[in-house]
Protein 1
Amino acid sequence: MPFAHITGWGISVPEPVLTNEDISKMVDTNDEWIRDHTGIRERHIAREDQFPSTLAVEASIKALQVANLAPTELDLIIVTSSSPEYIFPATACLVQDQIGATKAGAFDLLAACSGFIYSTNMAAQAIRSGSIKNALVIGTETLSRFTNWKDRNTCILFGDGAGAFVLQASDVPGGVISAVMHSDGSGADSLTLLGGGARHPATEATVHEGKHFIQMDGKAVFRFATRVMGQAIKEALELAGSSLNEVQWIIPHQANYRIIETAAKYIKTPLDKFIINIERYGNTSTASIPIATVEAIQKGQVKSGDKIVFVGFGAGLTWGAMVVDWTGPIPAKKHVHPEQYRAFARLRSFVRRAIRLIEGFFSRKEL
Ligand code: UT7
C-alpha cells in the first residue's frame, strides 16, 4: 500500500491589513478587548479583485513549485472553503482550469473550519488506496465578504487567505499516518451562513434580515471547541500508535488563542509545542492550518522527520485531527516550473470556450 506524503506547500494572503484599531472605528470594541478575548491583533482582507479561486491558484502554484510537480500530473484537486466562489460550480474546477491541471478530477468539500483536515485525509486515502498518485488540497477563504461589519461578535474574528498542500504517493513510509473525523449536526445552529441556499434563497427579505452574513453563538462554539480538541488529538495519536511525547508540533485551527490554551491544558502539553499565528491572521477557517504550517516551515520550526498533529473544529459541527510524519518534497532530477503552465492554461481555457461558442452557434443552426 503506498504512503501519502505531503510534498509541497504554499500560501497566499492578501496584502491589505485590518487592525483591531480599524475595527474599533466600525463597532463598539477596542484593541485590548479583542486581544484579551481572542489573541487577534490584525487580519488580512482580500482586495475587490481577489476571490477564493485567485488566492487558491497562487497558493497552489507555490505548493506545486515546492513539490516540483507539473499541474498536468495532478490526479485530484480538492478545494475546501467556508466562503466558496459560488454554490456551484465548485471552486476546485475554477482552480483546475486556471492552473492547467488537465487530467485532474476536482470537487469542493464543505466541513467549515475542519475542512482542511477532512480534505487532506480524503486525498491521502485516495492515494493510500492506490487509485491516484498526486493530489492538491486547498483551503481558501474570503470570509470578509460574509462578515457583518456591524456585528462585533463576529467581525473581530475572521480573516482572508489560502493555503495548499500537494500530496504524493511513495513507497517510503511516512506522510499521513492517521486521521479522525467527527460531526454533530445537533449543533448546526451554533455557527451558520443561512442565506442563498435552498431553504433561504436570496431575496430582498433574506438580505434585509442579514441571512447572507455569518451568525454565531460564540460561547457555544467556544465550549464545543475546548471539549473536542484535546479528545481528537488523543484519538488520532492512538490510531497512529504514537504518544504525545513523540510529537514535535501540534498545529491547531487558529480560531481563538484561549481555545488553544485550554486544549493545551487538557492534554497537559506546554503551549510552546503549538504553532500559533492567530495574532496576525485572525481566523481564516479552512486556510488557518496550512497558513500556520507554512509559516512554521519558513521559520525553520517544522522540519523533515518531525511528527505533527493537525487538529481542527468548526461549523457543522465538525472536528477532526490528523497525525503526519513530515517528510517534505520527494527528491527528483527534473525541474518543472508550474507557473509557466498558467499561460498554457489560459490559452487552453480560451480555446475551449471558443470551441463551445462555435459548437453552440452551429447546433442552433441545425435545429
Ligand atoms: O472556527 C470557529 C469559529 N468560531 C469560534 O471559534 C468562536 C469561539 N468563541 C469565541 O471565540 C468567543 O466566544 C468570542 C471571542 C466570540 C467572544 O468572547 P467571550 O469571552 O466568549 O465573550 P462573551 O461573548 O462572553 O462576551 C463578554 C462581554 C459581553 O458583555 P456583557 O454582556 O458581559 O456586558 C459582550 O457583549 O463582552 C461583550 N463583547 C464585546 N466587547 C467588546 C462581545 N464582543 C465584544 C467585542 N468588543 N468585540
Note: The two ends are 53 Å apart (CA to CA).
Protein 2
Amino acid sequence: MTHFLDIHTTPTADLRHIIDDARRMKDARHGLPKGTPDADQPLANHMVALIFEKPSTRTRVSFDVGVRQMGGQTMVLSGADMQLGHGETIADTARVLSRYVDMIMIRTFEEATLHEMAEHATVPVINGLTNRTHPCQIMADIMTFEEHRGPIKGRKVVWSGDGNNVFASFAHAAKQFDFDLVFSGPPPLDPEAALDGLYTIERNPEKAVQGADLVVTDTWVSMHDPASARERRHNQLRGYQVTDALMDHANADALFMHCLPAHRDDEVTSSVMDGPHSVIFDEAENRLHAQKAIMRYCLTA
Ligand code: CP
Ligand code: NVA
C-alpha cells in the first residue's frame, strides 16, 4: 500500500511516472465532457473519502471529479462535522475509515495529523494540504510547466512572497526534479529551516527574477495564519508583489503561476494574472489530471 504524503518522501522515479501518467490521462480525454468516464475505470467499485478541515474549491472539486471519472465514488467530509473535531483520535478515525473506504484524501492543519492518519490507516492516504506542505499542487505545477516549456530540469524558478506551505513543496520538488529555486521575500517570512539547502535567497525581487523561467507567488495570508497578521504581512510583503514591471525583469518567455485562490492586486496584479505569462488556469485544471495519476499510483505502486 502506497501513500502520497510529500514530494521529498516519494521516490524520484515515481514522481516522474506520475507526471507522465497525468499527461497521458489528460491527452486521452481531450475535448470530452467532464463527466465522461475514463476508458479504464481504475477506481471502479472504490470508495474515496475526501476530508476537509479547511476550506477548498480546487482540491475539493478536482478530487471529486477525478474519482468519478475513474469510476469510483466519493464522500466529502468536513472535519468539523466528524467526531475528529470532537475528541476522537486521528488513529481511531483512520482505523474506522479504513473499514469503509478504499482511499483517504485529507486537508488538515498539522503535518502530524496527516502522518498519524497514514500510520494507522490500512488504505492509501493523500495529502491535500497541511500548514507545511501542498504536494498535489506542485505536481500539477510541474506538469503545467512542462506542458508549456518542456523539461523543468535545470530551469530557474523564482518565488516572490511568503515562505509558506506551497513554497515548501516547491523546495522539495527542486531537489527531486533538479531545478534551481530562488526565494525572494522578507526575512521574517523566510521558509522553515528544514528546507535549508534546497533553494537560494535573493532579497531584491528584481534581481531574483533575472533569468527566471517561472515566477510564482501565493497569498500573503494562508488559511493557518492568524487574521490578525494580515496588516503586518501586507506591510512586510508589499515590495514582493508580482507586477508587469517585475515580470519584465524575468526571461521574455517566463511563465507566471499561482496556486489560487489569489487576492488580486495584493500578491499579484490582475494584469499579470490575466496577462501573457500567466498559466494559472492551466495549473488549476492540471490539479485534476495530476491527482488522478496520484490516485492511480497509490492503488498500483
Ligand atoms: N490551490 C488550492 O489548493 O486551492 P483550494 O484551496 O481551492 O483547494
Ligand atoms: N498557502 C495557502 C494555499 C492555499 C491553497 C494556504 O495554505 O492557505
Note: The pocket of norvaline (ligand 2) is lined by residues 129, 164-166, 218-219, 222-223, 259 (CB under 6 Å).
Protein 3
Amino acid sequence: QNVPELTLNDGLKVPAIGLGTYSLKGEEGVKAMAAAMDAGYRLIDTAFNYENEGAVGKAIKRSSVAREELLICSKLPGRRHAYKEALVTIEESLYRADLDYYDLYLIHWPNPKQDVYVEAWQAMIEAKKRGYIRSIGVSNFLPEHIDRLIKETGAAPSLNQVELHPFFDQAYQRKKDAEHGIVTESWSPLGRGNDIVQDEQIVRIAEAHGKTGAQVILRWHTQLGAIPIPKSGSLQHQKENLDIFDFELTAEEMDVISSFSREDGRLWGQDPSTYEE
Ligand code: NAD
C-alpha cells in the first residue's frame, strides 16, 4: 500500500493513517496486529490504559516489519500526571512493550479538574530528552489546554488525538491545532463502526468511486488533513481501510460528509473540559 506521510512540527514523518488497537489484546490481538503490520500499517496506536502494550510489542516481533519502520504511539493515563510518576509510567510503558523507545507518546486526557497536566507535559519533555520518546503530543486537549502548555513550557505538542468522525468534524479544534502546527489525529474515525458507514448518502458517494462507506469516510479524514486510526481485528477490514489513496472526494462530497456534524456531536459525551479519565 502506498500510504503518504505527514511531517510533524518536530520533523517526525508519520503515515496518513494508523491502526487503532483498543480492545485488541491477548493472543488474538497479537495475531490481528501482526497481520495489520504485514498488510502495510506502520502507525500503531496503543495506550497504557488499554492494557495491550505487551501485545503490541509481541506483534512487532512476530510481524515481518522491522521495528525502525514502525511508529508506535502510547499514552499516559490521567492518574499518572505528577512529574515523577509520569516518568516512571513511561518507563513501565516501554518495559511492557519491550521497546527502547516510543515514536509518539501522548497525554491521554487533560483531566482539568485534577489540573496536573502541565506537570505531565514537563515530564514528557524530559522523557523526550532521555530518548524514551521521539515525539510528544496530547490527546483530547481543547485549545485552552494547549495554549496553557505552550505558555507555561514554551513547547507545543506535535499532535493532538481527538474524537473526530462525520458527526463531529471538530472544525474549530482542527483550526486551532493547525495554528500551532499541530497535526490532528482522529479517534473513533468511523464512529466506532456506527451505522454511518451504511448511510444512504455515504453509500451513494462510495458507489460513485467504487469504494465502501468506510473508505469514503476515512478518505474524508485525510482530505481534512487529519490522521484516522480505525480499529479492526479483521484483515479484510484492515486492508479495506488502508486502500484509500487512489481516489479523491470532490468539494461537494466532502461537504455532504461534513454535513452530518453537530456543534456537540460527541457520540459518548466525553467532553474534555469535564471528563476525568
Ligand atoms: P472506530 O471508529 O475505529 O471503529 C471501530 C469499529 O468499526 C470496530 O467495531 C470495527 O469492527 C468496525 N470497522 C472497522 N473497519 C470497518 C470497515 N471497513 N467496515 C465496517 N466496519 C468497520 O472506533 P474506535 O476503536 O473507538 O477508535 C479507533 C481507535 O482510536 C481506538 O482503537 C483507539 O486506538 C483510539 N481511541 C482513542 C481514544 C482517546 O481518548 N484518545 C478514545 C477512543 C479510541
Note: The first helix runs from residue 26 to 39.
Protein 4
Amino acid sequence: MIIEPRMRGFICLTAHPDGCAQSVKNQIAYVKSKGAIDGPKKVLVIGASTGFGLASRITSAFGSDAATIGVFFEKEPAEGKTATPGWYNSAAFENEAHNAGLYAKSINGDAFSNEVKQETIDLIKADLGQVDLVIYSLASPVRMHPVTGVLHRSVLKPIGSTFTNKTVDFHTGNVSQVTIEPANEEDIKNTVVVMGGEDWAMWMEALNKAGVLAQGATTIAYSYIGPEVTEAVYRKGTIGRAKDHLEATAFEITDSLKSIGCKAYVSVNKALVTQASSAIPVIPLYISLLYKTMKAEGIHEGCIEQIQRLFGERLYTGNAIPTDDKGRIRIDDWEMREDIQNQIKALWETATTENLNEIGDLAGYKQDFLNLFGFGFDGVDYDANTNEMVPIPSIK
Ligand code: NAI
Ligand code: NA
C-alpha cells in the first residue's frame, strides 16, 4: 500500500515502515561515527522501541557490540493497516543487529505485568545468563497495577492553583493562552503510580531474585527538569511528582541491591519531540524556542545524540559517574545553560502566532514529529508501494 501520514490531534494514525527503518539506520550511523564505547555487553531495555529507549538500545548495540533484549508495547500490522512506529523501528533494529552479528530479541507486551517480567527473565536465563545494564524508559498514560488489578491513569496538571500560559498548536502555528485547572489528590496519586518508580523497583527486584543481574550491574531511568516557564505544568505538576518518586526510587534500588553492587541512576535528559511531549500543553512552544536557540548555538541534540553522549561521556568513561547534588546524571546540561535559558525567556515574552515561525523552530518541530512516524526522511520513496506487514524477526 501507499502510506501517508494521517494526523488526528496530537497523534498520527499511520507509520511508514521504510521511514522507520531509515530512522534506525541514521541513528546507527551516528553512533558508529562517534567511535566505540567500552560499555555494556548484555543489556535489557524496557521501553526499547521509540525515543530515548530505542536510542539506548542502538547505542548499546552499535556503540559497544552489546547483546540486547528490548521490551515494548506496540501494535503489530494488519493487512491494510500499519503497525505503530515502535514496531517498525524494532523490526529494523533487529535486522540491522543480526546483520552485524549481534544478538537481539524483543518482547512485545505490557511491561507493568508480572507475565512480561517473567517472560523477560526466562529469555535472559535461556540466552544471556545475566545482564549488566537495565535501561528503564517507559512512557505510558496508563498502568494496570499487577497486585491490585486497578487501572491507573496519569494526568498532566498543575498542583495547587490554576495555571495560565502561552501554548502553540504546532500543526497550525497558532499561539494562544491555555488554562489548566489544578489536579486533585487522586490525580497526583494516579500519576505517581503510572510514571513514578514503583514498577522500576519491581523489575529490579524480580531480576535480582531470578539471579539474572550481573555483579556490579547498572540501571538507568530517565527524568526531566526543564525551565521555569514549564514548571507549573511539568516539574511542579503531577508528572513532576512522579519524577520526584522515580528519582527517590534510584536510591532505594541501589540500597536493596547492595549485595550484588548494582547501582541505580536517574539521567535527566533534554526536552525533545516525542509522542508523549507533544501532548503536554506549553511544552511544544518551549521546545520550538529551545530548538531554534540550540541550533543557532550549534548544540542541538536529538535522542540518539543525547544517549550517545550519556554512554560515552557519563556512564562508561572509566571514571566515577558524575552526578548533581541530588545524585542525578545531567545530560540536560546544554539545554539548561544560562545563556540558552536567558535567550528563551526573552523570546517567550514576545512569541505570537505572527512571529513564531521566525523566532521559533516550528518547522523543526513539525519535521521531528513527522519523523517519529517514519515520514519526512530523505532517501525514502513515499510514493512507492510499501509492504506494511513487516515482521519483527524474534517475535512469533
Ligand atoms: P516514548 O513514548 O518515545 O517511548 C516509550 C516507550 O515505552 C516505547 O518503547 C513504548 O512501547 C514503551 N511502553 C509504553 N507503555 C508500555 C507498556 N505498558 N509496556 C511496555 N512498554 C511500554 O517516550 P520517551 O519520550 O522516549 O520517554 C522515555 C522516558 O524518557 C520517560 O520516562 C520520559 O519521561 C523521559 N524523558 C522524556 C523527555 C522528552 O522530552 N521526551 C525528556 C526527558 C526525559
Ligand atoms: Na523510550
Note: Residues 7-159+186-274+302-332 form a domain with the Rossmann fold fold (CATH 3.40.50.720).
